[in-house]
From TrEMBL:
NADPH binds at S88, K89, R252, G253. Gene3D superfamilies: 3.30.1130.10. Coiled coil: none annotated. This is NADPH-dependent 7-cyano-7-deazaguanine reductase. It is an enzyme of class 1 (oxidoreductase). The keyword Magnesium does not apply. Substrate binds at I86, E87, S88, H223, E224. Residues 19-129 form the NADPH-dependent 7-cyano-7-deazaguanine reductase N-terminal domain. Belongs to the GTP cyclohydrolase I family. QueF type 2 subfamily.
Amino acid sequence: MAHRPDTLEHAPLGRDSAYPEQYDAGLLYPIPRAANRAPLGIEEGDLPFIGEDEWHAFEVSWLNSRGKPIVAVARFRLPAASPHLIESKSWKLYLNSFNQTRFYSREDVMKTLAHDLAAAAGAEVSVELFDVDAPELSARSLPGECLDDLDIAISDYTPSSTHLTVGEEIVEETLYSHLLKSNCPVTGQPDWGSVLVRYKGPKIDREGLLRYLIGFRQHQDFHEHCVEHIFTDLMAQAKPTQLLVLARYVRRGGLDISPWRATPGLTPPTPLRLARQ
């Protein structure tokens, strides 16, 4: 992969881009995670969480050895411990570079994807390919209790951890909201999603939690960093002994991103795809 600056200033996001005609791994554009983690007090090599960024790609196609198009849906899992995330538009351009490229088998496609994505991320990336009507892609609902029917007044649309308060009762519960919205840090485009919080510890005030989550409505950041922001604020303010934060963002440009971060020992319910995705 050709060396290029890995700052947003040079990223393809927000720029006019020609779609490639042939396979090109050099289209992938890595972004260091460290720059956005530092303001949250997160140090590389000493992460306070485990987790993954799960991507689904719906514009995946290539030619077989006889030139016939094959289509699929791809699922990628990128570890949170990887030094880089991959900028989404560059990922889309890279996937579209397969469109007119011949591969002998589905396995060859998977090996190529895994190799190139690992090189960009700096860590092993899991790759799965599904038929477009595979049952694994069926929609499900989030587990737990929904916060969205709480009748609350809202006047603050930037994230503030002061909304996060707790009581003395120790509980173990799963809560979720479909009211998550953040904005792309480059283009300003809205990113819509649902967020799940599973925790064990002092009971979190539900109205305050919903106000806090709605506070991301005018916040500009990548999906992955929004989840890490929520995780670190909840750990600091609520001090749970166990915590899982998972976001399921709606697809844009043929890609959806669903990051999760958790204390060791917790994992998200999988497979989990929502109807809105």
